[in-house]
Structure formats: C-alpha cells, structure tokens
Amino acid sequence: MWCSSWWPDWFRRALHARGFRYRLHSKNVRGRPDLVLPKHRAVIFVHGCFWHRHDGCRDATTPATRLAFWQAKFDANVARDSAVRGALLAAVRGVATIWECALGKPEKVAAAADQLSTWSLSETETLELWEREISPSTREGEDVSSSS
Predict the structure, then answer these.
(1) Which of 11, 71, 106, 146 is deepest in the core (most CB within 10 A)?
(2) DSSP per-residue string spanning 85-144
(3) Burial, 112: exposed, middle or buried (Cβ in 10 Å; 0-12, 13-18, 19+)?
(4) Which CATH fold would you assign to the domain 4-140?
(5) pLDDT, tens digit, 9 for 90 and up, residues 74-129
(6) Taking the complete model, does pTM exceed 0.85, yes or no?
(7) Cα distance between residue 77 and residue 52, in whole Å
(8) Alpha carbons within 13 A on the beta-carbon side of 112
(9) In Å, how far from its chain's centre is CA 56?
C-alpha cells in the first residue's frame, strides 16, 4: 500500500536496498541532514517544497494571510539552507538535496534512488533532484528541461 506521506521512508528503503548505509538526522553534522552517508562522505537533505521554498514548484505556495510573517520565515529558512550547504561543501565530499516533489510516487522514489546512487560514485559535489528531473519515462539523451 502506498501513502504519499510515507515518501521519506520509501526513499530510505530504496537507498538501503541499493547498499547504502546511513545515519538519520546526525547531530554531529552541521544542519542535521536527513541522511548522512559516512562511507561516501556525503549528506542528503530531503527538503519540503513549501518550507524550503522550492523555486518554481507548485507546492511552494505562500499563505495569503500574515504575508510579512511568512515571507520573513521563508527567507530565514532559505538563508539558513544556503549557509549550511556552503559550510558542508567545505567539510564533506558531497551534498544532495532531494525535493519533496521528486518523491511523490513509488516509481519516482526508485528513480531518485538510482540517480543518487550514480551521483555517489561520481566526482560531482552537489546533486539536486526535483519532480521534472527524475521522470522515470525520460529516455536517455532526452532534454528533461523541456518536458512538462
């Protein structure tokens, strides 16, 4: 049975099935990333599109009431995320950000885990996955930026 609120658990299971071993919410790492991959010296943040302001995402809406309050809160979240990311890039090999919209369906979770697995073996310092980037129907060589 699939429930959309279980996507973080399904993502962790998919990573574990691919051989990844991780620590959850490590207090010893700045920013308390959602997952720490000690073997790969990498961290993974699974960001909610609403709270972390995923640019251009349909889930990153702004409440109509108390606009100034929400804008200040969102701005502080984005600034903190940026500072943490910068500090971590100086300390670890890689930082991955998986946006909530990328994990809405089981096939998307598997595709995201596959891309993260490929990234972990690469020399690339950062990875950012969102809904349009991990469409399981995207064929090799197809430009994902033009898909809808």
Answers:
(1) 11
(2) HHHHHHHSSEEEEEEGGGGSSHHHHHHHHHHHHHHHTSS-SEEEE-GGGG-TTPPTT--G
(3) buried
(4) Endonuclease; Chain A (3.40.960)
(5) 999 999 999 999 999 999 999 999 998 888 888 889 999 999 999 999 989 999 98
(6) no
(7) 6
(8) 32
(9) 15
